[in-house]
Design a protein that fits this description.
The protein is of the alpha+beta class. It is built from 15 helices and eight strands. It has helices at about 5-15, 30-35, 45-55, 60-65, 70-75, 80-95, 105-110, 115-130, 135-145, 155-170, 175-190, 205-210, 270-275, 325-330, 335-345; strands spanning about 230-240, 240-245, 255-260, 260, 280-285, 290, 295-310, 320. Strands 1, 2, 3, 4, 5, 6, 7 and 8 form an eight-stranded mixed sheet that branches. The longest helix is centred in the N-terminal third of the chain and has 16 residues, at about 80-95. The radius of gyration is 25 Å and the shape is elongated.
Length: about 375
């Protein structure tokens, strides 16, 4: 066993994290769920989502049997919604192709939607004791600093070198403890900002520390201009309900419920009356705000529209009139939730003499 692995295992036993809700279990379902949730998301954010999720979907069979809408509703606010869609699809694959039992081989795990090489290795190591290397963002940071690996880790050549390193360092025994140690090191000590090098169990062999490169490693991603887009949210409200449309299954916020969108050049009143055939009492512009994605930023201009009567014929756009509390409980993107919460339910209430039945097929 390498000195690096030995030091990490000893540190993990004494000072690593041992009280996370998914730890102490060799259930592949729970390990897989935690690994997917932890992608691009901090532990403290994940914990309440994980706890609520396993109450409603305690095993892979219950997740596979659920409708995607309900899965997305439990994921709402966690972001990166393709993870939830892949999670649901993978659960159904496990039931259909593997008899409801998670496969033991990393190749089979990688064949499931949303599971890459590193996630498959983590599941195999934690649940089956498989000697397989992980290489998530935290581990890349630990290895680039420890061994002084220059170059952006997202570049193919650098990533290949890191995979080779990760595999060469695997211990013959205790791979589950070692794997958890790598994760904990990156999350608690070898952090992106303000790393705690004084508490690091492998500081004595860290090239970045010895050469004063801790702040510059890993090499940052080359900067590119971040695209900026602007969209108008059209918040139709009628008889105390808001109109939400389900977005296409792929793309941004795929499968989630959202407000209709128009460009900034569109005449909201004209579209509502002429295209959507709504009788409108008036509109009100709400404060703009920005929502930032990984690869672009979105400026959102909400426009509140007071609808007083609905069309007699079905519009091509499918959706659903929902009470504000129903909308908040549905699978909605963070910006939609932000708008609803900022407005407050009282702003969405209309006079009591107006009534409307819930209609999830027409506008």
């Amino acid at each position: 066993m390498s000195d690096f692995a030995l030091r990490l295992i000893d540190w993990q036993r004494l000072a690593g994290r041992h009280d996370l809700p998914w730890q102490g279990s060799r259930d592949p379902y729970r390990v897989w769920l935690s690994e997917i949730m932890l992608q691009q998301t901090q532990v403290m954010t994940v914990i309440p989502y994980y706890q609520r999720f396993v109450v409603r979907f305690p095993d892979v069979a219950s997740l596979a049997a659920a409708e995607l809408d309900e899965v997305l509703a439990h994921w709402s606010g966690l972001g990166y919604y393709s993870r939830a869609r892949n999670l649901h699809a993978a659960a159904r694959r496990v039931m259909a192709d593997f008899g409801g039992v998670f496969p033991l081989r990393t190749d089979d795990l990688e064949s499931l939607p949303g599971i890459g090489r590193s996630t498959a290795a983590a599941i195999a190591a934690f649940c089956f004791g498989t000697r397989a290397a992980i290489l998530d963002g935290n581990v890349k940071r630990v290895l680039t600093r420890q061994f002084g690996v220059a170059g952006y880790p997202g570049e193919k050549a650098v990533e290949t070198r890191l995979w080779t390193l990760a595999e060469s360092l695997l211990p013959a025994e205790g791979v589950d403890i070692y794997t958890q140690a790598l994760m904990d090191m990156g999350a608690t000590l070898c952090t992106r900002g303000r790393p705690r090098c004084e508490a690091c169990p492998v500081a004595v062999s860290c090239v970045a520390l010895a050469t004063q490169q801790v702040a510059s490693l890993p090499t940052p991603k080359p900067r590119k201009a971040v695209p900026h887009k602007t969209v108008r949210f059209v918040i139709l409200h009628h008889a105390g309900r808001v109109w939400l449309q389900q977005r296409p299954p792929s793309g941004i916020w795929g499968g989630l419920w959202s407000f209709p969108e128009l460009t900034m050049d569109d005449d909201v009143l004209a579209v509502c009356q002429e295209q959507w055939r709504l009788q409108v009492a008036g509109t009100q512009a709400l404060p703009d705000f920005r929502h930032v994605f990984t690869h672009f930023s979105l400026q959102i201009a909400p426009q509140l529209v007071d609808v007083v009567s609905l069309p007699l014929t079905v519009n091509e756009a499918s959706g659903c009139w929902m009470q504000p509390d129903e909308a908040l409980a549905a699978g909605i993107p963070a910006p939609v939730r932000k708008v609803l919460l900022a407005m407050g339910a009282e702003q969405l209430q209309i006079s009591d003499d107006l009534t409307a039945e819930t209609d999830c097929n027409s506008l």
